[in-house]
Amino acid sequence: MGCDSAAVDRRRLLGGVATVAAGSVAGCSDLVNWIGDQVLGDVNVFNETTNRLDGSIVITAPSGESALDTTFDLPPGGENGDGSTASTDEDGASVFEDVWTDAGTYDVRVALADGHEVDGESAASVSATIEKPDDEMLAVVIGAADVEDPIAFATGTEMTDFQNNLLE
Asked: pLDDT of 5-16, one tens digit each?
């Protein structure tokens, strides 16, 4: 008897994880973190708006060399005004691997393309200290309703760390 395999996009998977996490009791964060380990990379850019966003992300390593210099094109990933989720078959996230080379402070700059802005902001930057390059991740969250900054940054070694490790 065969097994049908269906591709699960990252947004649906993360949405499912968030639902499970919200309804779970203490101790279940291990499952959320395990799933996060399977789908997240060193740097993760999330679009939580109801609009398609494109832009660039530039990360400079502690050595002064470029660690990442690329563009992203993200479909809507947030909720519509009526509470429904924007409908798309694409991920509302871009994931980048092998960014951290050494421990130290990395300068991160995100710029949305011309004509794109979230709550009046089209760019943001932060210095992120990475102590464990093999373990730590950076989340760039654009347009999250539960975060004060329109473009927010967080670090962590696990997915559940992001909420408590927002960078200023």
From this structure: 333 455 545 555
Neighbours of 10 (CB within 10 A): 19
Is residue 70 within 8 A of residue 95, CB to CB? The reply is no
pTM score, two decimals? Answer: 0.75
Q: Pairing mode, if any, of strands 123-130 and 93-96?
A: unpaired
Please give the tally of structural domains in the chain.
1
Residues 61 and 102 sit within 8 Å (Cβ to Cβ): yes
**Considering only CA atoms, which of 82, 143, 148 is closest in space to residue 110?**
143
Dihedral of CA 53/129/100/58: which sign?
positive
Asked if the model's pLDDT at residue 166 lies above 80, the reply is yes
CATH number at residue 84: 2.60.40
The sign of the dihedral angle between the CA atoms of 12, 17, 21, 24 is: positive
